[in-house]
């Protein structure tokens, strides 16, 4: 069992796609298949089920994945400490919610890659916050950036960066924009434009429900950009992170309402597994992301 084989297996187990694994690691696909086959032969078990073009982990594969993660982490740690190789290098798998992906992550990644060119960043897409946290717990991603209510966890390290400023927004023609301040009851009769499941949507809905505010109707949209366009088309109001609409507010295309309701207490946080070794690459990413988010 070689380190190269374990690295190939680890990547394939995360991606469940040999073609993508080959592209990520810079090998020919035949080399990926040959190394996986050699590992299966040595261990005497099947690690993947081949279902046409799809592959899935077998029970033996899932068991090996845990050992492979630990072995490769220890290998990197030994190399960095014993070899005194403190310059960040290796592979770092990251994940983030939509707001961060679109409005914060590009600047963070650009700065990080300029400072640490030896680190290969892999972005793992996900749909919901809970799914992202599960991926961390399962060791499929190294670090995640999310905006949500403060979380405490027995299995995760949670680093709070700063409060996420939220904005209640409407179109430039919505009568709410003429009011000096907006209370919760002023939203009665307004259509709410909502994201898919996330903490700030849940907090907003729970707050309105608690004080008995009945809204006219609700429209769930797939992404933040769709919500912005619907707000500008005067289809309703939305409560979303201010960073998403800062430019449109400054340009006068969307109005930010003076909200007198309760704060949603949404915090920008980074997460990683408590048993994860803080490699130079991981520490560097945490520091760069922290610096960027604190500066704006």
Automatic annotation (TrEMBL):
GO MF term (any one): transcription cis-regulatory region binding
Protein name as it appears in the record: LysR family transcriptional regulator
Domain of life: Bacteria
Keywords carried by this UniProt record: DNA-binding, Transcription, Transcription regulation
Domain HTH lysR-type: 1-58
UniProt organism field: Salinicoccus cyprini
Similarity annotation: Belongs to the LysR transcriptional regulatory family.
One Pfam family it belongs to: LysR_substrate
Signal peptide (from-to): none
């Amino acid at each position: 069992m070689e380190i190269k084989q374990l690295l190939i297996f680890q990547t394939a187990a995360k991606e469940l796609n040999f073609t993508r694994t080959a592209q990520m690691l810079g090998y020919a696909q035949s080399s990926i298949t040959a190394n996986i086959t050699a590992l299966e032969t040595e261990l005497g078990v099947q690690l993947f089920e081949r279902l046409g073009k799809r592959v899935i982990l077998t029970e033996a594969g899932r068991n090996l994945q845990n050992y492979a993660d630990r072995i490769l982490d220890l290998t990197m740690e030994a190399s960095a400490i014993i070899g005194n190789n403190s310059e960040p290098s290796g592979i770092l798998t990251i994940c983030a919610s939509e707001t961060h992906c679109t409005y914060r992550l590009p600047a963070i990644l650009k700065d990080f890659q300029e400072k640490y060119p030896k680190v290969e960043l892999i972005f793992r897409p996900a749909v919901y916050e809970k799914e992202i946290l599960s991926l961390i717990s399962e060791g499929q991603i190294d670090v995640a950036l999310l905006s949500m209510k403060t979380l405490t966890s027995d299995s995760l390290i949670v680093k709070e960066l700063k409060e996420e400023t939220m904005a209640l927004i409407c179109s430039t023609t919505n009568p709410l924009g003429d009011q000096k301040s907006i209370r919760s009851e002023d939203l009665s009769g307004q259509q709410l434009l909502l994201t898919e499941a996330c903490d700030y949507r849940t907090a907003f809905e729970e707050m309105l429900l608690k004080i008995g505010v009945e809204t006219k109707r609700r429209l769930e949209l797939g992404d933040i950009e769709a919500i912005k366009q619907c707000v500008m088309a005067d289809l309703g109001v939305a409560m979303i992170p201010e960073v998403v609409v800062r430019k449109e507010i400054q340009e006068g295309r969307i109005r930010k309402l003076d909200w007198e309701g309760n704060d949603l207490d949404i915090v920008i946080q980074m997460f990683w597994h408590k048993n994860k070794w803080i490699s130079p690459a991981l520490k560097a990413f945490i520091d760069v992301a922290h610096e960027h988010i604190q500066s704006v």
